[in-house]
Amino acid sequence: MSPSRLSAEERDRFSWQLARLLYRTTRLFGVTGAAVAAICIWLPGAMTLSNAVACSSLLAALTATQLLMTHRPHPLWMVLAFSLGLSLIAGIYMPANGQLNIATTGAISAIGAWGIGSMATILVSSWGQVLVLLGALASTIAYILLLTRASEPRTGSILLSIVTGWAISTLFGIWLRSSFPRVMRRVSSIGRAHNVERRASETEAQRHRDARLLHDTVLATLTLLAHSGVGVPAESMRAQAESDGLLLKRLRLGETPQPRSSGEYTLTNTAELSLGGTLEALKGRFGSMGLDIEWHGSGQIGLPGTKLEAFILALSECLENVRRHSGVNEAHVTLSDDGEMVRGVVTDAGSGFDPATVPDGKLGFADSVVARVRDAGGSVRVFSAPSAGTTVVLEMPK
Question: What parts of the sequence cross the membrane (predicted)?
Answer without folding.
Answer: 21-44, 76-96, 102-124, 131-150, 156-176
